[in-house]
Every structure is written in C-alpha cells, then in structure tokens.
Amino acid sequence: MPSSAGYLLGAFVAAIALFFALWWMLVSGGDEAPWIPAGLAASVVLLVALSAREVVMRRAWTRYLLDQNGEPSARTSDKKGTSTKSQSTSLLTSAWRAIQRQSEEADSSSNPESHFEVFHLCREYIAATEEPLRSSNLPGEKRIAIRTVQERARALQKHHLLTWARDSSRSLTYEAQQRARTSDKIEAANRALHCLESALKFYPDELELKESSLAIRELIGSVKVAHWVELAERSAFKGHYRRAIDRYKDALFYLNRETVKEDVRIPGAERIAREIELLKARLKAQKNGRSESYKDDRSNDRGSAPE
C-alpha cells in the first residue's frame, strides 16, 4: 500500500511551491492582490491531488479484498442479489395491488382522465416486470406468477385506454354539437378525434375506435360544408350572387375533400351544382337588366335633349 504521509507531504509541498511561484510572477507584473489567484491555484492543486488519491486508494483496496477474500465476497454479493430480487418482487406485488384499487375507483368514477391514469400505471408496471423476467436466477414459480400478472395488466391497460377514448370522445363530440360557432365545433371535434387516434396507436385493429374515428371525421366534414352553404345562402338572399357562387364552390370543395358519406356527398354535390347554375342565371339576368336599363336611360336622355 502506498504511504499516505509521503503522498500528502508531497501534495502540500507542490501546492506551496505553486503558490510562491505564482505570487512572485504576479508581484513582478504589478498585481495589487497577488495572493488571491496564487492561493486559489494552490488550493485547486491540493484538492485535485487529494481526490485522485481517494480514487486510487478505493480501487486498490477493492482489488486487495477481491484477491485475498474472493469467495466470501462472492457469497456476500449473492446474498445481496437475492435480497434485492425478493425486495423487487414484493414491490411489484404492492404496485399491482395499488393498480387494482385505482382501477376499481376509475370504473366507478365518471371522470375519463382516471382511466387514462390507470392506463399509464399499467404501462409502467409492465415495463418494470421485464427486468426480473430477464434474470436467469428467478425461480420458475415466480416467473410464471409474474407473467400471469403481466397479462392481467395488459388486459387492464387495454380496458382503461378504450374506456378513456370512448368517454372522452363522446363528451367532446357532444360539446362540439352544442357549440354555436363553427370554429368551436371543429376544435372540439378535433380534440375528440385526437383521443381516438391516440388509442389507435396502441390498438390499431380495434374496430370500435375505427368506427368512432370515422364518425367524427364525417361530423367535421358536415360542419365545414354546412358552414359554407349557410354563407352562400346569406349572400344570395342579399343579392350578392357572385359571392354566393364562390361560397357554394367552397362548400363543394370541402364536400369532395372531407370525409363524407356517399349517400350524403352525391345529393349534396347535385344540390350545390343546381344552386350555382341558378345563381349564374340570376347574375346574367341582373347584368342584362342593368344593360337594358342603361339603354333606356340613354334613349330617354336623347329624346329629352333640346334641338
């Protein structure tokens, strides 16, 4: 083992030598307080030396113990590993019981977010059980028990995620239907759609999620089309036929682009096309009427002009 007294003495001598060397250089340079940077530099050197000695001594002592007493240390590590594994198993058991309690509370609650919390707890539990299963020293009975609980956690995770997506989307869809402004309706419907799409990322083959997502997309499309049709009808009522035609074309654009049922899309497109043709005829008649009125006014002006 290296001599502690000799190492410490050498460190102190090196720090003092550095202090005086820096102090002399700073005094020669005209520094007003040369002892401050010199003292800081010496302190840093001393701390680095002491820290390095501590690291080296720990490694040397560990290596010494392993060489002199390898078998007892191995037995000690085995005992520690066994106690750690048993402690980890008991923690997993307690966590599963807590998840079951929270699952029952979520099922009896009307708050969709409580189901989302249980879903995340199940995900964390499943991830935590993977580490014990990877261990080769885990007994067969405990391995089977952990896998059984893991499957239950997966089933519980799916149940709560689907419940959260269903309840949240229904609430937001109802909110969208009750809103007066079109932008508010679309925003609430998009939030409902986001909930369903989040669940579809985990269970892409779930038929209920796909059907609900399609229904909300159809709702968004119908809201957009109805909005532009209403604006077109207002413009036509006010006699702004050109503006009404443009807004009907916008409605037709969303009717063809958005998700809309075929039994609604085809009759809707035909109705909009008829309205556009009718407005074009009115616009043409309006132009012709103005032209005839202009000709009549000109002829009247010529007839009344003095000879």
The radius of gyration over CA amounts to 41 Å
Give the percentage of residues in beta strands.
Answer: under 5%
End-to-end separation in angstroms reads: 136 Å
Could you list the spans in which at least 5 consecutive residues all have pLDDT below 50? 64-84, 301-307
List the helices and strands and how they pair.
Layout (H helix, E strand, L loop, with lengths): L3 H25 L6 H34 L1 H39 L3 H23 L5 H39 L3 H21 L4 H31 L3 H17 L4 H42 L4
Helix pairs in contact: 1-2, 3-4, 3-5, 4-5, 5-6, 6-7, 7-8, 8-9
Describe the overall structure.
Helix 4 packs antiparallel against helix 5 (140-178), helix 5 packs antiparallel against helix 6 (182-202) and helix 7 (207-237) packs antiparallel against helix 8 (241-257). The chain is mainly alpha-helical and 307 residues long. It is elongated. The chain contains nine helices and no strands.
Which descriptors would you attach to this protein?
single chain; 307 residues; mainly alpha; 9 helices; elongated
Outline of the structure:
The protein has 307 residues and is an all-alpha fold. Helix content is 88%, strand content 0%.
